[in-house]
Amino acid sequence: MSTARTAVVTGAARGIGAEVARRLAADGMSVAVVDLDESACRSTVEDIAHAGGTALAVGCDVSDEEAVTAAVERVATELGPPTVLVNNAGIIRDNLLFKMTTADWDAVMDVHLRGAFLMTRACQAHMVQERFGRIVNLSSTSALGNRGQANYSAAKAGMQGLTKTLAIELGRYNVTANAIAPGFIETDMTAATAARVGVDFEQFKEAVARETPVARIGRPADIAHAASFFCSEGAGFVSGQVLYVAGGPRD
Ligand code: NAP
């Protein structure tokens, strides 16, 4: 019989995070739906409740140390020790290097890298105590380099280095850490990218699909499926990996 687990999914009010939260709940986990604004988490929580699962809305800026400590304590008290963590919260502040502001660099580093560091450090205490943990970090194909994304590509490459180090340090406690590097997934984030470059979103999606080996763009469910595998009880010998979920080879 499997043990009931508690999962924390950051940036889960919408997009990929919301789908990952719904999927982990369907897999039988209690899920803390974490996002900047607690009220924005309600629709994900309601979806999970309607499907018969258990979820809690938690407002938290993942780059704020005190807020992260308080959020993880609240999750542990109300749902149980968080032994599954998906560091998904993310933002983009795209611009060509010569136009990129220091504030845009810092904002992206803060949410992706500082946020994942703070969340992981807070949750690993519970994982080590429980002698079980599953950490999944959202990287991106942009980690390989992408025009206009000096900040984001550096952060997403950083997520891969963080993942491998977590795998090495925490493995002895039965804690695994893996990264998912999505290609183009249809969400508000990619809609914003289309708007920034002045291309109609439908045309943008068609153009990406034409260049993708499986001839379609990605959906949040494609990422949720990979996250479900990495978080599963049976994936305990898979650690420190980066899985490109991009409709073709990107490595
Ligand atoms: P999204 O639709 O923009 O959702 C991101 C969520 O993160 C939003 O709900 C956002 O809240 C939240 N968030 C932002 N800053 C936060 C903070 N400091 N603390 C807590 N939550 C915060 O993005 P997505 O497309 O689902 O992307 C999810 C993850 O996948 C990101 O890490 C992204 O970089 C990565 N990814 C996405 C794609 C893609 O094609 N979509 C490809 C590769 C990687 P607000 O709504 O309040 O801002």
List key phrases describing it:
251 residues; alpha/beta; Rossmann fold; 8 helices; 16% strand; globular; binds NADP nicotinamide-adenine-dinucleotide phosphate; KR_dom; NADP; oxidoreductase activity; oxidoreductase; Sc_DH/Rdtase_CS
In short:
This is 3-oxoacyl-ACP reductase FabG. By secondary structure, this protein is of the alpha/beta class. The protein is built from 8 helices and 7 strands.
> Approximately how much helix is present in the residues?
40-55%
Q: Mind telling me which CATH architecture of the largest domain this is?
A: 3-Layer(aba) Sandwich
CATH superfamily of the largest domain, by name, is NAD(P)-binding Rossmann-like Domain
The sequence of SSEs as H and E is EHEHEHEHEHEHHHE
Using the coordinates shown, work out and report the CATH topology of the largest domain: Rossmann fold
Number of helices: 8
Strand content: 15-25%
* SS content category: alpha/beta
Give me the count of strands.
7
Biggest sheet record: 7 strands, parallel
> Whole-number radius of gyration?
17 Å
Itemize the secondary structure elements and their pairings.
Blueprint: E1 6-10, H1 15-26, E2 30-35, H2 42-50, E3 55-59, H3 65-78, E4 82-87, H4 102-130, E5 133-138, H5 150-170, E6 175-182, H6 188-196, H7 201-211, H8 220-231, E7 242-245
Parallel strand pairs: 1-2, 1-4, 2-3, 4-5, 5-6, 6-7
The structure holds NADP nicotinamide-adenine-dinucleotide phosphate.
